[in-house]
Amino acid sequence: xxxxxxxxxxxxxxxxxxxxxxxxxxxxxxxxxxxxxxxxxxxxxxxxxxxxxxxxxxxxxxxxxxxxxxxxxxxxxxxxxxxxxxxxxxxxxxxxxxxxxxxxxxxxxxxxxxxxxxxxxxxxxxxxxxxxxxxxxxxxxxxxxxxxxxxxxxxxxxxxxxxxxxxxxxxxxxxxxxxxxxxxxxxxxxxxxxxxxxxxxxxxxxxxxxxxxxxxxxxxxxxxxxxxxxxxxxxxxxxxx
Length: 241
What we know:
The chain is mainly α and 241 residues long. It has helices at residues 2-23, 32-44, 46-79, 81-96, 99-110, 115-138, 142-150, 155-193, 197-207, 211-240.
């Protein structure tokens, strides 16, 4: 049933796009065919495929550090009241700080080489994961923990069999949001700090007035999002089984 509605939604978007391309000039709304040709050009070029790999590398690095730091801080905040009160204003500050402000600072630290894109993505992801894990810890049923202690389970077994399953829904929702944030933030960082990666090529397409290339690179970013999400879901499912 979900696939049915996904197809209907996709069909509606493609129809609106097609109608828009008939009404507006190609410089405003390029046709589906033009975007398709641009995507084929990108995917058939070894140098352009390498640009996708560069963005993927930056994306995976930011996801790794953002999720690891977010999980660690969130877990500590969930189990320790004092630590939770200490990090609360810091997390709130990160939530409202404009990514562009962090980007400028990161450029001062690392220069125009793509690294600032990773830095701002890590800081953008961290609050989402931290809050998700912290809320998951706070909503664990204390009776389950007590039952584990009653049966004299080790801390490792309590964590594996009680804590992690209770955290799973919160981590899953936090992961979905953080992945979307990371994709957008890394590409935005590339647009503003480097001429490489998907963002760098979007910037070049803008300068060359090639809206079809901008849309093609955007679609590739969306595909990366779903590929990473699907891979992680299958990995987690295999781990559970």
